[in-house]
Amino acid sequence: MFIRQSVVKACQQSILALLVSGAFLQGATAANKNDTAPLFTEKELQTAAWIRDAARSDNLSYKILESLTTEVGPRMAGTPGDARAVAWAEAKFKELGFDKVWKEPVTYPSWTRGIEKAEIVAPFPQPLSITALGNSVATPKNGLRAELVEFANLKEMMAAPDEKVQGKIVFINHRMQNSNEYGLVVPGRSAGASEAARKGAVAIVIRSVGTDNHRFPHTGVMQYAPGVAQIPAAAMSNSDADMVARMIKRGKPVSLKLELSSAAAGTYTSYNVIGEMTGSELPNEYVLIGGHLDSWDLGTGAIDDGAGCAITMAAAEFIKRNGLKPKRSIRVVLFANEEQGLFGGKAYLAAHQNQIAQIQAAAEADLGQGPVTKMASFVRTEALPLVKQMHSVLAPLGIEPGDNNAFPGPDMGDLRMAGAASFGLALKADDYFDLHHTPDDTFDKIEPARINQAATTYAVFAWMAAQAPISFGSGQELLKAAKK
Amino acid sequence: MFIRQSVVKACQQSILALLVSGAFLQGATAANKNDTAPLFTEKELQTAAWIRDAARSDNLSYKILESLTTEVGPRMAGTPGDARAVAWAEAKFKELGFDKVWKEPVTYPSWTRGIEKAEIVAPFPQPLSITALGNSVATPKNGLRAELVEFANLKEMMAAPDEKVQGKIVFINHRMQNSNEYGLVVPGRSAGASEAARKGAVAIVIRSVGTDNHRFPHTGVMQYAPGVAQIPAAAMSNSDADMVARMIKRGKPVSLKLELSSAAAGTYTSYNVIGEMTGSELPNEYVLIGGHLDSWDLGTGAIDDGAGCAITMAAAEFIKRNGLKPKRSIRVVLFANEEQGLFGGKAYLAAHQNQIAQIQAAAEADLGQGPVTKMASFVRTEALPLVKQMHSVLAPLGIEPGDNNAFPGPDMGDLRMAGAASFGLALKADDYFDLHHTPDDTFDKIEPARINQAATTYAVFAWMAAQAPISFGSGQELLKAAKK
Predict the structure, then answer these.
(1) Helices assigned H by DSSP within B107-211
(2) Which top-rank group of organisms is this from (chains A, B) (predicted)?
(3) N or C end of chain A, less CB within 10 A?
(4) By CA distance, what is B434's nearest residue in A?
(5) Which value does ipTM take for this structure?
């Protein structure tokens, strides 16, 4: 018997509630239409529904995140906080009773922030609230000073004549209006420096890529294009960008002094930290969930991505604690250095590239505290009725069905490109880009009900994916079928 | 004729609208009950109602504040920003067409902020977001390190045995729950250092006196008690205070390293900057409105108190621009160094102490961007029917009537204690203590409709007070009557 007595009682109550509400029945009926396809058994569906209801009153994800943000705090890749986070993760996995806990090395170039200061020096002297972008080189010692030239976005800057940019500090004033615009606005951060340097700019200072109206600059990684001069790159807060734009609008030249001492700092080896609940029947097949363990240094990485770590650790632990024995293994991976270039995800793929077919399903949590609002899949056609059953169990949590072209999350993106069956458990990002990469990404922003819904969703997902009667189809065939 | 043709037309429309709405009629009827008391004439009431309606579509207060925060920005007393603010204020008064513009010296001890850093060094190393409190002394060079001892509030700390505090850094963890609790919580900031020092503490770090949930520390002035050791004093953000409290709750000693280089910096002379619209009949009697020109250095002083300066400058300018000629003078005073000890207010009283009786009414704006929600008065009994009429005109702006024991604002507090008739035009402070004394006090937080309502209220108030048929009674008699 794999459910404790107290659990059985709660389970029976849950099932009763479900039958009364009709939610569960609806799902089962819909799935039963496809009589020939392999389906979850009635008992498996009941257990999944029990997890959904019982886990909602659990609070473990909140507690794990409290522990990480209090006992470790900032954990930028390559810093002492990174090493403390790895130690914390190993210890926490063990404390939570994971069957196997191990770490896998991830080596990457390290970067240090150093001094970061900026001030308008003319016509109206004012200090600015700025931060260096990850990977930025330093300014000359004691800073550099030049006139600002404003552009509405990266594209407009790229279209400008070189003379307009030559010798200036480029100011990309591209406001991110809502959480859907990250992809639209972020190229100014990641590629702006090199594009500005091509035109002879001496530095770039962008409006932060963030949706808040506070005086927090948002950091984030940038990359230099090969063969182009490397110029310093920083972001100012939205409040500062508003103010600088107002100054520029007055028509007089506006000069900025920028001082950064950020620098590359050699090579560092951190770790993907992995905890596994080993499967009872198919231990070498596994459901892969997780988040990234590193954070930026400015805040304590509560929503980015302590939440993802906590959600997925709690999900697996809930299954184990309640005596449920999944057929397949459930593997929680806390990835190293996502922020500076997805190094943990790449290292995981490199270490496990011959095991793609063993991945039953991959789903990362890296968009904040939840709740999950949608479930998309990327599975072979034969498994779609199972996905439908999974969704039917999850629907009462307010989760919409998605398409069959899911993206599992940043660190698992390469796995999917290599053919891993994937799920996209979309987290509600309404506050995510307010806090993202700022000093304000702290634990006090977390609402227990939100993070708990996400942990519950991951628990149901992980359990059902692990129990599924057939493989979800990871491998080249899946990629080929998707291309058709 | 003291109203331009276009204004007359708008005025007639306004009066019509008022009659239809009944709002104006109501006020007039109520006031007319007291037939023997001197009252505003029908024409004066009509003009006041016209100001109320016409000024609502004005936008000058917003523009003045945009100018101050963009062209001057931070203007902490004694800094170059202070001098730039004085120059800005003189120029702006002249540009706005004030009849007389002058400045009066205000001398005070100056203080510099310097370096401010804090980090938890054990058991869980984490940097904190802190700021020095105004007047704080420095730590030893390279900082000091000691164990934290937490208290729920100042009172609890004062009641604790000395042994508990000796050699420690006191952490006063008193959360300000809403904007009404400033008076309750602020003693921990202003008096905490000396009270902690009496018990042998080596420093004090308080939870910020602020209602926000962001990673901004709130600065603010503190005072050392004579004859007590001076220990460094700082505030941490609410987010940091939450985190430190969580650490302490784990039961192990929590050690903090604090580094401040703040210091007293000699004597500085700044100025109260004054603009006057001179009265046509009683030029030596004046309605006194204003705000304080200095701000803290962390933000740009948009709500504290650029808003108060802008509201009152715009109010007086609106009257002048529309050709209205007040009987009494309207004097706008932008006070120097309110933040570090009400120096501008004290200097104004010292320079004008023989003219208390000439103050028709005093009302300062120093609680943010508005709107005004209540009007209280402090006038002789004979003037109360006039106050009632003033309120009737203002009521459609959503302004409640108050008592006759008004406080005119921090810089005018001493004037009131000396017998100046006063008005308390209460500003809605819902967001004020979120932003107050933080880097986040910036212009982007200002809503035109809010600040404009406040400027409109001050224009109506200033006009009516200047036109009143009798004196509001400033002088010793008023104080005596109030004490009865």
Answers:
(1) 154-159, 162-165, 182-190, 192-198
(2) Bacteria
(3) C
(4) A214
(5) 0.91
